[in-house]
Every structure is written in structure tokens, then in C-alpha cells.
Amino acid sequence: MNENDLIVLNFEEVRRRSIKVWKAIPNNMLNWKPDNEALTCGEAIRHVLEGEFLYHQILIARGSKAISNTTNPFETKELSTVEDELNFAKPFREDFIKYIKTINKSDLENVKIDRSDVGYIRTLGDMLLRIAYHESVHTGQLLDYMRTMGIDRPQIWD
After folding, report:
1. Residue 41: which region, alpha, beta or left (left: phi > 0; alpha: psi -120 to 50)?
2. In which band, very low, low, confident or very high, does the pLDDT at 132 lie, cut at 50, 70 and 90?
3. How far apart are the C-alpha atoms of 31 and 43, rounded to whole Å?
4. Could you read off the pLDDT of 24-47 as tens digits, one per residue?
């Protein structure tokens, strides 16, 4: 197994666990949020899916500046069911995974992604790990929401 295979495996495992959590949230609870400042359950799911699309654009352009010229297909889409959100995001996810598979080993260490607009410049490999971590954090957030709502939480540590 090479570096790319491990990175893809990490993304697939993170997403598999996220989907278990997302699908365990009843549709009538997707608009729930713990307070007025928080994201709803549905908004948190959308944030992860949209974020992956936007991060992919940043990686391709090697920096954040490309985002201002990117058409974001998530901006005009109404929030709906988890299944609909996953279906909508599927082609973008497939493109992202294909992109990861094309990265050569030296690029993981040598390509720099300029996110100085938000305070950092990191290697491509570091950014890929950050993207997966971002999704993991929001999965934990939703597990906490589910605990607060008093609904059953799925077993994600299989």
C-alpha cells in the first residue's frame, strides 16, 4: 500500500463513519441545533460536503485565491435529506478521490498550499490530513448533538 492508498483509505473510513452518524439523525431533526449561534444538523452535514468540494479547488489551485473564481454548486442547492445531500455530492467526492490517486509522492512533501488568507501555508500532504480531520471534527459535533437531543447514536468504532 502506497501513500496515496493510505490517504484514500483514511478519507473512505472517515466518510463511512460520518455517513453512519448522518443517517442516524431522523429527518425531522435535521434542523435541530443546540443554540442560535450553532449550525443545524443539516447545515453541519452540508458544511462538510461543501467544504470538501472547496478544499479540492484550493488544492488544485495550490491556494485559497482560486475560491473567489470558483462556481460553488452547493450555494444554490436547498438543504434536503441526508441521502439527497450524499447523492448530490457524490460526483464531487469521486473527482476528489481521483485527484488524490494522481498525486505523486514528492508532491505530498514539496507542493505548498497557500492559505495565508487564513494564516497558514502547508504541504499538500498536511492539507489532505487536515481535510479528513475537518470532517472527523464535525462528525464528533453531530454525535454530541445526538446525545443532547436524546437520540440513539450509532456505533462508529467497528
Report:
1. alpha
2. very high
3. 8
4. 999 999 999 999 999 999 999 999
